[in-house]
Design brief:
Number of helices: 9
Radius of gyration: 26 Å
Order of helices and strands: HHHHHHHHH
Number of strands: 0
CATH topology of the largest domain: Diphtheria Toxin Repressor, domain 2
CATH architecture of the largest domain: Orthogonal Bundle
Helix content: over 70%
Shape: elongated
Structural class: mainly alpha
Largest sheet: none
Strand content: under 5%
Length: about 170
């Protein structure tokens, strides 16, 4: 009797439910989809073996074909099932954080541009205090052009130029 109870306890420790296995498989498929959606330069940073690299390259080709792409993601998940994916997850986390910080910087620059167009001299003084490499005259010229374009409902050429000018100088500070 005692022997049966001990084997029952051992069995309970090793038991993984079917639902848990499905959740793990789905997580691996999502990880595979993230890998397929990476840019080539980002994908080079991820430590992948040859089979997985080939499967991801095939996944790129199947992107437009919904059902084939879904099945291929299942295959990629199956390939990753028996591999250590912690290194892959670590690199993907780095890539995500870099993308998030880039998005944050771009949003900040968009806010500066909008503030420059709406507030005028106060915003110019504030942005010059934050970024010393900007030129006041160049800022005023770009702001003036952008306001004229907006008033005339023209394409936002100077609007974009102002953003590029801000981006160049803020990124030079980093």
């Amino acid at each position: 009797m005692n022997h049966q109870k001990q084997t029952q306890d051992d069995w309970d420790d090793d038991y993984v439910s079917k639902s848990e296995l499905k959740r793990e498989a789905t997580a691996l498929q999502k990880l595979g989809e993230e890998l397929v959606n990476l840019k080539p330069a980002e994908l080079e940073r991820v430590p992948l073996d040859e089979d997985l690299t080939d499967a991801i390259a095939t996944g790129h080709k199947l992107k437009g074909k919904h059902e084939a792409f879904r099945r291929h993601l299942q295959y990629i998940g199956k390939l990753m099932r028996n591999r250590d994916i912690e290194d892959i997850k670590a690199v993907l986390d780095q890539i995500r954080s870099r993308n998030n910080s880039t998005n944050t910087r771009l949003h900040k620059l968009e806010k500066w541009r909008d503030r420059l167009l709406s507030e005028g001299d106060e915003a110019i003084n504030a942005v010059l205090a934050e970024c010393h490499t900007l030129e006041r005259q160049k800022l005023r010229q770009l702001i003036s052009k952008a306001k004229k374009e907006q008033a005339a409902n023209q394409p936002p050429v100077a609007f974009r130029e102002l953003f590029k000018y801000l981006r160049e100088h803020f990124e030079a500070q980093l």
